Amino acid sequence: MAVIRCDFFAETLELSTSMTVLLPDEGATPPPVLYLLHGLSDDHTAWTRFTSIERYAYDKGLAVVMPQVHRSFYADEAVGLRFWDFLTAELPAVVDRFFKVSARREDTYVAGLSMGGYGAFKWALREPARFTAAASLSGALDLAYIQESDLRPHIRELAPRVFGDRRVRGGDADLLHLIRTAEPAELPRLMLRCGTEDHLVEQNERFVAAAADAGVSLDADFGPGEHVWQYWDDQIRVVLDWMIPKR
């Protein structure tokens, strides 16, 4: 595998940014690609520093794109930068221009942890034709609750910058609303994993219930685990085996 740090200018952000990319170094055809999203306190290097994603991707012949979006909740910030437009429009175009990876829906995946789990499901639910499968690990999946009721100091400081006076509940940033109004037949395959000791477990349980109410198929499982890298390193292997059967 090649491990590439790519520094480039993002037009939508109007600044230089970075992504880490894993590329298989063998194979005649463009490899499938996973967009792997980081959490609130992480950056584009976190997955490669704290898990063995390079080794797991090698076993699958999988390219992995890990962008940097800071603490944006993968949104166009009310007071800040257009990270949603960057993620969904500019980033795939940059990847297509710079790297030899498959552009077919059946070869395109998205996953993430915590804030990145939210971002992965939001992208998959809002642009279902782009992905064949999407996975959330320990996702911050109830953003309306986070906006309205999460009293942790860092969230109360962050929320005005990201959301401004925009109400999440019932809109296109609300995953519970998106899953309830989705057309099940049009969605990619969805997987959810969350530890039973994770502080976000209730948000994940609400998403599972909303999917069931909407008749949306969801591979969901809860087991022992906290909001820690050991759990995510274990579970990303489960995700990859679910996404891409062993060669």
Account of the 3D structure:
It is a single chain. With 247 residues, the protein is of the alpha/beta class. It is 38% helix and 21% strand. An 8-stranded mixed β-sheet has the order 1-2-4-3-5-6-7-8, with helices on both faces. 41% of the residues are buried. The model has no long low-confidence stretch (mean pLDDT 96).
List the topology elements.
Elements (H helix, E strand, L loop, with lengths): L1 E9 L4 E9 L9 E5 L8 H5 L2 H8 L2 E5 L15 H16 L9 E6 L1 H12 L6 E5 L5 H7 L3 H11 L11 H7 L7 E7 L5 H14 L4 E5 L5 H15 L4
Parallel strand pairs: 3-4, 3-5, 5-6, 6-7, 7-8
Antiparallel strand pairs: 1-2, 2-4
Helix pairs in contact: 2-9, 7-8
| Alpha carbon gyration radius | 17 Å
> Which secondary-structure class do the elements indicate?
alpha/beta
What is the N-to-C order of secondary-structure elements (H for helix, E for strand)? EEEHHEHEHEHHHEHEH
Which geometry do the CA atoms define? globular
Mean pLDDT: 96
Strand content: 15-25%
Number of H/I helices: 9
pLDDT < 50 stretches:
none
Give the strand order, joined by hyphens, for the main sheet: 1-2-4-3-5-6-7-8
The total strand number stands at 8
Helicity level:
25-40%
Distance between the termini: 16 Å
- How would you sum up the major sheet? 8 strands, mixed
Short overview:
By secondary structure, this protein is an alpha/beta fold. The protein has helices at residues 46-50, 53-60, 83-98, 115-126, 143-149, 153-163, 175-181, 201-214, 229-243, and strands spanning 2-10, 15-23, 33-37, 63-67, 108-113, 133-137, 189-195, 219-223.
